[in-house]
């Protein structure tokens, strides 16, 4: 699977604290990460961080302005660290973004091109935030997409359901972590 990568997006301490619903999300995500590594698939972490002076925060961007006002996502703050239950291993790439999409204000596209990656497997928090924004951009870039439905999480379960059941299947294969880990599925999608 050299042309695929697993993206673990915005699974940072503060975000997990806000969104974790007690459903075992981090354990499922850990299984996906371990499965990707076992298959030799690169795992790329994406984090959102804002400079302390808010230079990149436009007042026209409502979600980002609200996050900045709440003091969230500040570079160097402990809350911006990747959650320790799914922390990167040596050699994993971590990309820092400044907006909703993993591509916005980051070098993700460069990392993907340098590694010849043409397909992405998306995970992260929130389904209606980074997962949606990244899926839109990846679709526009003609990248193949898989969304791991239960390795995505949103604070609004109904919005998550609509995106997973209605929108994402138009652009991507949408499967559970357990389905994705099955050899038959992997063999049929290489």
From TrEMBL:
Keyword Hydrolase part of the UniProt annotation: yes
Keyword Hydrolase in record: yes
Record domain Isochorismatase-like: where: 5-179
Pfam families named in the record: Isochorismatase
Coiled-coil zones: none
CDD domains xref list: cysteine_hydrolases (cd00431)
InterPro entries with a match to the protein in the record: Isochorismatase-like_dom, Isochorismatase-like_hydrls, Isochorismatase-like_sf
Entry keywords, A to Z: Hydrolase
GO MF term set: hydrolase activity
Lineage top rank: taxon: Bacteria
PANTHER family reported in the protein's UniProt record: ISOCHORISMATASE HYDROLASE (PTHR43540:SF1), PEROXYUREIDOACRYLATE/UREIDOACRYLATE AMIDOHYDROLASE-RELATED (PTHR43540)
Name assigned to this protein: Hydrolase
Taxonomic source organism: Saccharopolyspora taberi
